[in-house]
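Recap quiz, item 2
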Amino acid sequence: MGRLSAVAGIFVLFLGLVSAGAGDPQQREEETHGRAATPDYARVFAQDVVKRLDIRVTAADWARLVADMTEMAGGYGTAGGGPGRGGFNMMPDPAGVAACDGRVEGDSCMFGTPPQSGRCTLLPMGVGLTCTPLPGGGNPGGGFPGGGNPPGGGAPPGGGNQPGGNVGRDDVEFLPRTPIYLPATLTFDGISFSNIGLRLKGNSSLLNSWRSGAEKLPFRLNADGLEDQIPEVRDQTFFGFPNLNLTNNSQDSSFLRAKVVGDLFREAGVPAARTAFVRVFFDRGAGSQYLGLYTLVEIPDEPMLEMQFGTENGNLYKPNGTGARLTVFRAESFPKKTNQRDEDWTDVQDTIAVLNESRPNPQVWRTRLEARFAASSFLRWLALNTIIGNTDTYGGFSPHNYWLYGSPRHRDRLFFIPWDHDLSLNAGGPGGGGFGGAGGGANTGLDLFHDRVNASWPLIRYLMDDPVYRATYRGYVEEMLNTVFEPSAVTARLQAEYARIAPYVVGPEGEVPERSFVQSPAEFTQAVTNLMTYVQTRAASVRQALGAAR
Amino acid sequence: MTGHVCSVLALCVATAAPAMAGQSAQEAPEPPPPVFELEPEAYIQLDWRSYPEWPVSPGTGRLEFNTFEVRRLRAGVNGQWRGVQFELTFDPQDLDGTLVKDAYAEFRPGSYEIRFGQFKPPGSRDYGTSARQTDFLERAALGRALTAQRDVGVALHGDLGQRFDYDVGLFAGDNNGSSRRSGVTGAGRLEWEPGSDLVLAVYGSEGRLAAVDTDPENGLEGRLSSGYRFFENVYVQGRRTRLGGDVEWSPGRWQFTVEALRVRDERQEQGVDIDDLPSVVGTGASLTTRWRFAPRRDVAVRYEYLGFDDVGPDTDMASVRPRAADLRARAAHAVTFGGSLGVTRWVRLMGNAGVEWFSDPRTAPEAGREGAYWTLGTRLQVELPGILGLRVR
């Protein structure tokens, strides 16, 4: 028996030693780096200061990124104009613009002699589309089924959860695959984070920046994006945030759109990502240099869903492609960002089916729709989005730049989450400013009730056709004109933000011209002035249109 | 206090105590029971764990145990006053987040006992075992995930003849302080002891569930003893019904225990059109063998199973969403080897090595990887020596 006791004692001791020796190897501060860290909104999305973010990558890694991107999008700076904003100032090729006439962003196109194939991308400031040659295929375009999209380049059907599907590629829809991640060291508020995954992100903004040879490129940060290669970073976060975007505002000389519009949506009760300005210093192995003022944008993943919906257990989608119009369900258009290993798309399928069903009894239809879709939240978005003027979203240039979240705390109803507002506060667009592909100039011919939108955008068309929803929408427009989009309040906000960021855009601490999209202090100031003028005239136009529609 | 004798008794080392008690029983008449007794009790459990090759960070909601933690820090008193027994214990460390553990009084008006307050409802044998006396670091999965846990209520306990015990109660819920708590719950357990070393029991409970849209999911969640969550709770409403049974056979130094439990939670009005969804069913089973080869020294092995599914037909749209019509079926098996060494009566060392398998590779710790996941763990348990007590005669 004594021998058995000894064996048992050794067994226990052995397990103790093994257990003690195999503790968490990551040795990092859980409060700032761990998955369980409380998202530190006050620190990361500080509103009253412009913080500094240092990013460091090795020269070899940067070379890998360039090679990868060149393979997908062509050579860096091949659009001419050199680094800086030069590439953005070039006149668009009329043949390229003509090739995208009647198409939406992301559609395949062909132009020139000999013919070159490409994708329709947004012109600077979102004033139209032009055909951009691309070496590879991309995701399917956003055209209406049967609407004449040339074939090619699509993700495999049902590939949402499969290798080669469009998971993770939703923010680079025009590229054949997601750009590679590099290991980067980030320093923020005096705290460093090693091996953060950094890659390029964006659609037109990325392509335009890349092809113009701009150094100030848009980035995605994924704190544990390299966990397969570097296990130590597993479950790492950046002050509680797993993913963040760095938007370069390449198409917004005022820098203010992405920040201010996101804030306005949240104030209007529409779920939207938080943003903050940051000064990005970048070191590619040759010393740190000020890359410019970026807008830091939270991704609608765990922290945002927890904060704004109470839980992150529901299905989160980033729709893109034809199916994102919501006319007919296509799984490949709804890449999942949560519950990615489920085959379950029933919430989206069901919503699309009910949205498009016949409506002999409108009340029954509304009840069925509202059981599946947060219609009121969507109408609030639609009202403010229309007032603001934003065509690079659902109902505009392309069925993208939105997320859908089936919130468990709302009986799995899908919520529309707007995204990417750097082309907003701009009524210009296809046809000159109307929402839905038609309309007049910036503030003329305003299609306030979307009468020119057709059934290829059923979420707008069918809701606006319903008298109850139409009246609700009208009420929201009136409300927002008097609250969220009250011109003097918005102007004051723009002025305050301008004052906050101006020292980091122009002047001694400002952006360096050869790396900036803004060529002069006057351009920046004028852009902000134009924005404030736009707000005033836009509000007046909406009021006028509202009065005329009585 | 006149005429009463107050004394603070310093009790002897426990190993000597039985002998002394035996002597006094033979040599002196039994003293009258004290009017008031109070005895403090406390213990601490320090756990070290490791998860070799697990790609999940310990100490998160997904894998709830950390590599080192104070698993329990329990302190309280028990005693009796004029025949009414009572117990009050606290634990600021336990995972359920409730500070107050047991807080009840019990009296015996006749051939039965009535207990009221907060305590463990009649049910699982595994869960009924004190946390400081379990054979393994963690209870069997069914004892943690499926069984009714401490709540406020009243219970009646007594004997039916020589071989049957009954225990029935009515409780405010089935897990006080938990988001998964049901409403008013009735619970009962019936034990049959056909021989001195064999006990068979059946037990069950039924309570009402109410899902609140704006609250967290209120269904049960699935974790094995590693603490890894492989089944997330869902919204449930309607009846929660448990039915279980256990057998314990203790021949000599051996002990064999088998237990099984099935829980069915209805999902009334949880469909998108306020329609009913198929009920969710959780099934657990465990089989434990223990060999006590010396006093306070034993080795044990346990097999356990825990699975969840809905009772509706399987479709190709199975999901983990909290209101999915077709919940994705998920189950897990585990084998745990354990050793326990009582260094003294107040110090216990435990070591566990467990291996787990998951039926759905998508919900395994490393998504998509089938196979075994090992967990190693050690516990140092130190109890407050039973040397202090207050007795008023």
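Residues 17-27, 82-90, 136-167, 430-443 of chain A have pLDDT under 50 and may be disordered.
The radius of gyration of chain A is 24 Å.
End of item.
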